[in-house]
Write a structure and sequence with these properties.
Radius of gyration: 21 Å
Structural class: alpha/beta
Helix content: 25-40%
CATH class of the largest domain: Alpha Beta
Distance between the termini: 33 Å
Strand order of the largest sheet: 4-10-9-8-7-5-6
CATH architecture of the largest domain: 3-Layer(aba) Sandwich
Oligomer: single chain
CATH topology of the largest domain: Aspartate Aminotransferase, domain 2
């Protein structure tokens, strides 16, 4: 069965992903199984998406219940789950308004458009440039690719959307030297995920906020990977106490269902009037009902607390590995967004982990990224550490 599926996939699916020769058939909690019945402990979680693990019963129930009521009527009409989800996000964040879409790239696209629209509406048409960070990742649409600070991802797609400048992440002096009267916004990830799990200095985000305020520019936080509890707070910006003007979410918001969201403060969000931005499928009843249940579970079952505690334990165990193996150059991260940088290529280790029943991910060529479900426990972590110790 496995070989037939892989052979068929190679014929009919666009070859944009390099996949290992397994076919995952089902999942439960922190485990998935392939078509041959082999179990794997999942430390990828759909790339920081399945924070509640696979097939969480409350999310499944919410999804099925809403599917039995109403699938889709478009955003031409109000629907109850969408309003309730937006209300929850507003009540638990800095924001006053929410725009729903289908993915992180679309959320960032909306943020870019809103920032420019805001200054256009204020008769500042010359203020359209956006400063992004080197090694950043904001998506694969043309606008979000233009905002991404990684040449290897952008190769072959130029010319890009005009108006983006780049400075090193975690370098406030470089930002101060670039920000100016033509800058409409600064966009950054509070922790760079795809860029190698790069964490800022404790005061960096405060400095960025002050520079934006001084220049009159908007601050956009891309929390697509860091949001919804991943860093040990509901949103990563809460670690610093710095509020953005715009924030983008996706990934864990739907626990595997396609949803993105752009949140903004009222004075900024008001730049989007009727007909200024739209989406056919964004915030459909089924998806928003499931996402609302995801947030309720995270809140009621203290999932973020577990992330903070178990993340510290995971970091401790990875640092123990570092003390034993010279090939481990660095361990960094926050909550359950952790990277282990090696002085060798990471892909062979990923493959060996797969053979031993662990799903892990490699980024930037030599950094293993661990983004397991936030419900992961010590037993699963200890099993992975034992595996990595043996491999290293």
């Amino acid at each position: 069965m496995k070989n037939n599926i892989i052979e068929k996939a190679e014929k009919v699916i666009a070859a944009t992903y390099k996949r290992p020769p397994i076919v995952i058939e089902k999942g439960k909690g922190c485990m998935v199984w392939d078509t041959e019945g082999k179990p794997y402990i999942d430390f990828v979680a759909g790339v920081a998406v399945c924070s509640l693990g696979h097939a969480h019963p409350r999310v499944v129930k919410a999804l099925c219940s809403q599917a039995d009521l109403l699938f889709h009527v478009s955003n031409l009409y109000y629907t109850i789950p969408q309003v309730e989800l937006a209300s929850w996000l507003v009540e638990n964040s800095f924001a006053d308004r929410v725009f729903f879409c289908n993915s992180g790239a679309e959320a960032n696209e909306a943020a870019i458009k809103l920032a420019r629209k805001y200054f256009n509406g204020n008769d500042e048409k010359g203020r359209y440039r956006i400063i992004s960070m080197e090694r950043s990742f904001h998506g694969r649409t043309m606008a979000t690719l233009s905002a991404t600070g990684q040449d290897k991802i952008k190769k072959g797609y130029d010319p890009f959307l005009e108006g983006f400048d780049f400075v090193p992440f975690n370098d406030a002096e470089a930002l101060a030297g670039r920000i100016g009267p033509s800058t409409c916004a600064v966009i950054l990830e509070p922790v760079q995920g795809e860029g190698g799990v790069r964490c800022p200095d404790p005061d960096y985000l405060q400095k960025v906020r002050k520079l934006c305020d001084k220049a009159g520019a908007l601050l956009i936080f891309d929390e697509i990977q860091t949001g919804i509890g991943r860093t040990g707070r509901l949103f990563a910006y809460q670690h610093s106490g710095v509020e953005p003007d715009i924030m983008t979410l996706a990934k864990a918001l739907g626990n595997g269902l396609p949803i993105g969201a752009m949140l903004a403060k009222e004075h900024v969000a008001s730049a989007f009037g009727h007909g200024s931005h739209a989406t056919t499928f964004g915030g459909t009843p089924v998806i928003t009902a499931a996402a609302l249940e995801v947030l309720k579970v995270i809140s009621e079952e203290k999932i973020v607390d577990n992330c903070r505690k178990i993340g510290a334990y995971f970091m401790e165990r990875l640092l123990w590995l570092k003390s034993r193996h010279a090939s481990v150059k660095d361990v960094r991260g926050v909550g359950l967004l952790i990277g282990m940088e090696l002085d060798v290529e990471g892909e062979p280790l990923v493959n060996k982990c797969l053979e031993k029943g662990f799903l892990v991910n490699c980024i930037q060529g030599n950094t293993l990224r661990f983004v397991p479900p936030l419900i992961i426990g010590r037993e699963e972590i200890d099993s992975l550490i034992e595996c990595l110790d043996e491999i290293l």
